[in-house]
Write a structure and sequence with these properties.
heterodimer; A: alpha+beta; six-stranded mixed β-sheet; 7 helices; globular; B: three-stranded antiparallel β-sheet
Chain lengths: 344, 128
């Protein structure tokens, strides 16, 4: 167990690789109660969210989920988030490590908006069931047709016969669902899904494989790829920004970052050998610093040492040969396309 | 090897002395803490090491750690099977998973190491 933003969380239940492979081949169940869940109700709910995040919230239809960034005035990333639209309210899911910061940020910017903001993180439980068999395992426990759900959609439905929410979302690069229920139902939901998946290869999956799975899928992690020093375009997350839509905090700075051809780029790296280039490892071309690694692991799916990092613009092309300094020894690394893994 | 007959360092290496040559490995406790091993760096045969000096590293998905020689001396043999089959270390840390053999310049250095009971107690305190 480790402390993660104040939450006691397991790195692994069995082993990281077994859990990782279960998600890729069958299913994994991840306790994500730590994710912050903020509800927005009232006439200006969409307008406030639209002002606070980089994506176009006013364009969201009921049932849609969108990825977005929260940026400061300088265009730096305060958090990466998901915005959900329901018939009469919105949900913002934020990172555990940033929840208090974002709650404060919203409090600072909500004055002109007629909206009720409700941090329900501690009243609700959230679980992710991910992998090719996720839908089959979950289906008999929810009152909705999961097959008919589009990717990045959500709806309120009954879960174990009680009100809850299901979305077809996740942080693993695999098909899967995330489920929200009242915190009183947490243990029952967890045990029900573990039992339902036991004969189909489902494993409980901890933070360790959550990291290897998201890294293979090239999904950024706040505190690694994302920080207040990084703008959305440097991070390669322009798809979560709508500069043509309404105003948002940091918009002019984000637009300037987009227009800057010399900004660094987030790249994927494949290393020679089996050593792992971890966060902070420096990248070089010969003796010239080229950038640094933000996350690295040994990919259980590819059986290769992989990493993500930021490099200077001219070195971001696929095929560029770099070297990474791992605790004083250099290992060759090649820039490769992201994601490292894409489900078939 | 019989774990009860081995000597241990707090940094989770075990040592076994036989006719002036010390066989060194890392304990099953350390292997279990690391889990999911991906890489091992072995010292070169012929290298001279001092007691307490780092002489290689083992890496897992989760973490990387150095290991430290329990004695001063010369590396006379390494277990190169480990480089391609790290699961040997997970399966048999006290036997087939040995890492290196060191011809000790002062085998008496082993006397300052922990016995099994003291080492178990140390692991308990580290595990919480």
């Amino acid at each position: 167990m480790v402390d993660f933003a104040g939450w006691d969380m397991p790195v692994q239940y069995s082993t990281i690789i077994d859990e990782h492979n279960a998600v890729r081949q069958a299913a994994g169940l991840l306790d994500i109660a730590h994710m912050g869940r903020l509800y927005f109700r009232g006439p200006d709910a969409a307008a406030l969210l639209d002002y606070v995040v980089t994506n176009d919230v006013t364009a969201l239809e009921v049932g849609q989920v969108r990825y977005a960034l929260v940026t400061n005035e300088a265009g730096g990333i305060l958090d990466d988030v998901l915005v959900y639209r329901f018939p009469d309210h919105y949900l913002l899911v934020v990172n555990a490590s940033n929840r208090e910061k974002i709650v404060d940020w919203i409090a600072q910017h909500r004055e002109k908006f007629d909206v009720e903001v409700d941090d329900a993180t501690f009243r609700h439980f959230m679980v992710a069931i991910q992998g090719p068999l996720a839908g089959e395992i979950l289906s008999t426990h929810v009152e909705t047709d999961l097959v008919a759900m589009g990717y990045y959609t959500a709806l309120e439905t009954k879960v174990l016969g009680q009100p809850g929410c299901v979305s077809r979302t996740g942080y693993t690069g695999e098909d899967g669902f995330e489920v929200i229920v009242d915190v009183e139902r947490a243990v029952e939901l967890w045990e029900t899904l573990i039992a339902a998946g036991a004969g189909r290869g489902l494993l409980p999956a901890g933070l360790g494989c959550r990291d290897t799975l998201r890294l293979e899928a090239a999904m950024p992690l706040y505190g690694h790829e994302l920080s207040e020093e990084i703008d959305p375009y440097t991070a390669g997350l322009g798809f979560g920004v709508k500069l043509q839509a309404g105003d948002f905090i940091g918009k002019s700075a984000v637009a300037a970052a987009k227009a800057n051809p010399n900004r660094r780029k987030r790249v994927g790296l494949e290393l020679e050998g089996r050593r792992i280039a971890r966060e902070g490892a420096e990248l070089f071309v010969g003796d010239t610093p080229a950038g640094e690694v933000t996350s690295g692991t040994f990919s259980p799916t590819l059986q290769k040492s992989i990493a993500m990092g930021y490099v200077d613009a001219p070195l971001a092309a696929v095929g560029t040969a770099l070297e990474v300094d791992i605790r004083g020894k250099r290992a060759p690394a090649i820039v490769v396309p992201l994601p490292f893994y894409r489900r078939s | 090897m019989d774990p009860a007959s081995l000597k241990y360092q707090k940094t989770h290496e075990w040592a076994h002395l036989d006719d002036g040559v010390v066989t060194v490995g890392i304990t099953d406790f350390a292997v279990a803490q690391l889990t999911d091993l991906v890489y091992i760096e072995l010292p070169e045969v012929g290298r001279t090491v001092s007691a307490g000096e780092s002489f290689g590293e083992v890496e897992s998905v989760k973490a990387v750690r150095d290991w430290y020689s329990p004695v001063s001396g010369e590396v006379v043999e390494v277990n190169s099977d480990l480089e391609n089959r790290l699961e040997i270390l997970s399966d048999d840390a006290f036997g087939a998973g040995w890492i290196a053999k060191i011809k000790a310049s002062d085998p008496g250095q082993l006397d300052r190491l922990l016995d099994k009971a003291a080492y178990d107690k140390h692991c308990e305190s580290e595990a919480h």
